[in-house]
Amino acid sequence: MPAKMEDVARLAGVSTATVSRALNTPELVSQQTRSRVLAAIEELDYKLNLAARSLRTNQTRTIAIVIPTISEPVINQVVEAVEDAAINADYTLLVCSTRGDAQREQAYIELITQQTAVDGVLYISPRSAPEHVLKLARSTIPLVMCNYRADGLSAPSILFDHVSSIHQATRHLLDLGHRRIALLNLAAPYYYPARMRREGFEQAFAGAGLAPDPSLIVQLEQPTYDTDEWRAAIEALLDRPNRPTAIVAFNDAVAFEVYAVCRARGLRIPEDLSVTGCDDTLPARYVNPPLTTVRIPASRQGHLAMEYLLACMNGESPPIPPLTLLDVELIVRESCARPGA
Amino acid sequence: MPAKMEDVARLAGVSTATVSRALNTPELVSQQTRSRVLAAIEELDYKLNLAARSLRTNQTRTIAIVIPTISEPVINQVVEAVEDAAINADYTLLVCSTRGDAQREQAYIELITQQTAVDGVLYISPRSAPEHVLKLARSTIPLVMCNYRADGLSAPSILFDHVSSIHQATRHLLDLGHRRIALLNLAAPYYYPARMRREGFEQAFAGAGLAPDPSLIVQLEQPTYDTDEWRAAIEALLDRPNRPTAIVAFNDAVAFEVYAVCRARGLRIPEDLSVTGCDDTLPARYVNPPLTTVRIPASRQGHLAMEYLLACMNGESPPIPPLTLLDVELIVRESCARPGA
DNA sequence: CTGTTAGCGCCTTCAG
DNA sequence: CTGAAGGCGCTAACAG
Asked: Is the entire prediction scored with pTM above 0.90?
């Protein structure tokens, strides 16, 4: 049986109230009482019972972060930044990855909305229908989202500016002289960034007084790691009689899939086909040729989200507007050239 | 003020004990009582208070997973597998990434060893001195480790067979006719896999009746993501008057760094230099040329670790021996050729 | 099958 | 600055 506060109190010759104060509000306890308490704690190897504290205080110092998967570089960075910020604020992280499974998401939301489960929630890049998310939003627990928007959802959301990211990439290709440009996009109906990307694509064309060929816009539901589907889509694109001279991929992983297909077909990048990615993941620098892509401020998003959440939880006013767009930056490397060069 | 069990009991016309039973041991409650209780729960939107339950039951249904960082592909997979297994067993995951920071590790261990913080701990690939880990091991909380061994540490550990992984890679190069083979290894003194890899390297040579050139074994302390240090080490290796004809990198990320350096110098892989990696991360297939590397069963490790931990927590006998080596497999792609080919 | 009762260990007024 | 006392919400004996 581990020591409890009462044991410490007895050994130190004080009351449990004093022990508690020595721990939580040391400034209210005299120097020597405090050190006697500390000594007793040391001697008994006393450990605070967190459940008891939570029951009393109604807080857990834990926040839940729900993410689609832990195995995507951008999500990684966001989680890492969130964790750093959480540690600084003395919070701990419950990781809930849904893996695109609605049931699992449901179960996590169920858990999270229990009393005294967590003090706040970060919901990163959900692909799911608003119903699920609304359940969370309706609960009293503070919620901050990233990369999500839906009608009737008032939760604050921090978004990468993906209309700009794809706009920049497309513009870059347009400037090089490309016209037959394909867009490889995600089709998840509730995934807001997908809509933004499509918009960026179309706006870039519009900005040049042109319009994209709708048949070159392919939108798949499969997440990036389902490479087979993506590969098939890419093959189909390159099989077309009048194949595109450039491909805008919605993220680096899909761009690499394009690399793989090209390699298999003996198509040279960028001579035979220009390609852009998005996210500027690590391999973008390593592949051959290095990938022109868009850098997005992932850790910044994580930090901001956590700060926002902290503010919500403390009843302070948020540091940024409830709908914040984060700037992105085109990184030109060597995967694009003039068409037919 | 959210509803508590008492409110539900009152509305359903039963005692709180019955409500509790209806929730936790429904088979002990009559069909109709149960449905009345459920109805009341529904009506009041009652949520169980987890802190109160934990206080009573002394368990949290949470397990802590401490990892060096969340941004390494292998760690990713392990965490993902662990989470899957945890969900199946109705546990939830507290993620503690140390980022190689001893203080932070300390703080997490402090947290974890509090009462009612978590029910068990998974410690994955620690790079730290045994002292830190021992503190955990001495506590009463169930602990399972991955990729760690130290004298005086009795905690079970599941290890990738890295003497085999590097042995296979080295052997492959030896078989191709290479003799001047360099090893790029991690030097973290307490990182057991590093020692295994070195051993695998030396054993491969010994198996061929040869001995490696000790000056071609470079061991750096920097984690993989500190690319500058690694790049410098690679440059130095290639600057040597009698430079190696092949490089065995301890993981794919470092191998890619070799790719980058070669590209910058106009050195062709594999014609001018053969390279092997380890871990078989996603980009290994995408880089040019595709990387010969070693596949390690990351999700298997995660699953096994969680199963082992579950067994410990339930007082059952573990499914595997306390020291288990996991098989690895060489994946031959196109980054190696005969020397001077 | 159901109710009564007694804490789990801590924090927090309220007095002193 | 310190102590006494009550209760956070739930579960687990123990009776019935």
From this structure: yes
